[in-house]
Write a structure and sequence with these properties.
This protein is an all-alpha fold and about 450 residues long. About 80% of the residues lie in helices and about 0% in strands. Helix 12 runs antiparallel to helix 13.
Length: about 450
Amino acid sequence: MKLVSSPRDREILRLAVPAFGALVAEPLFLLSDSAIIGHLGTAPLGGLGVAGQILGTLVYLCVFLAYGTTAGVARRVGAGDLRAAVRQGVDGMWLAVAIGALLIVAGWPLVSWLVELFGASAGVAPFAETYLRVSLLGIPGMLVVLAGTGVLRGLQDTRTPLVVSIGGFGLNLLLNVVFVLWFEWGIAGSAWGTVIAQTASAAVYVAVVLRAARRHGAAVRPDLAGLRTSATAGVSLLVRTAALRAVLIVGTSIAARMGDPEIAAYQVGFQVWTLLAFALDAIAIAGQAITGRYLGASDPVGAREATRRMVRWGVGCGVVFGLGIVAVRPWLPGLFTQDDQVRHLLLASLLVVALLQPVAGVVFVLDGILIGAGDGRYLAWTTLVATVVFLPAALLVYTSGGGLVWLWLAIGLWMGTRLLTLGLRARGEAWLVTGAVRH
């Protein structure tokens, strides 16, 4: 049987493969910063780690700018109204600018408090504060990139975001080398390099969207009604994202309190999980764009058939990833540590991570499909339910001394709850709301 057996498979891959490349390129910003700042010493590297966590949280919570924009634009594309599609994308980008400016104003006086909240030591804190103060100036650019990515995904274009991501990474690397190693600006130079690279990437998206606006006759001025619509649509996705983030933070916090070997093994296992999640998220991103377009075109049958194909891709990728983890499991711990206790914990944890991959494949894909359908309110409530199920289970693991494997099983319970709630929704009809705008 052919792996790609239908036009829908080719459509999924056309969108998912470039999306995967863009997803992998984004983390390279901080990775390249880390490689260069590491030459300055332990304290600057620690400062980068703390500031990066804070920035990552802020940007992660605003990912609705990409997801909500993708869904809304794709619906308009499906309805054949490209002018309204681009106009909705413009509204999303203006909202990104407004939120970015607000975060600068609100975040600047809170820099020291935020760094302290994230547990920076006295030696690390000055470097974290320096990096964070400079990097806040790049927040509007980062958020415009999110919104611009959403516009192009909604327009069924995932190749341009890939090119912009690669270009942004290359510029970031070059500027970091020049500012840190040549001009000797220290950690501030690294931050300025990232700010310039992110702002330049945002400028590319603005240029691309402005060109599309001229081509389709869409207005580009700020529109209060459009901003309000974009913001309202984003609230549910913000709640969903915050609930997801809570699970990640609590999981790391509990692993850290178990002991140094446990947190070390957990971090490696979680990095493996995250890497594979990028591939599964690529299918989910294709799901957002494809589902929104079919429902905008008033084709629920096409949306459901595409859903079946994407779920099969999610399951298939999950099985392959799980088997891959099992295959490399005997050698993987040696790449990260020589500590026997950490190796033992990681070997056991990786079995659970492998078993969860098919579940993750379905969960991530269905999550993307329902985002594309504009079913944000359901996603918000059910993600909160799954988080509420996870939290007492994780707390019980800690209080009973259950160990790291049991913490991963608690994460499995969380994923299982999401699988149940998302699967039930996908089997029903309530999410199949057609039309250019979901009412």
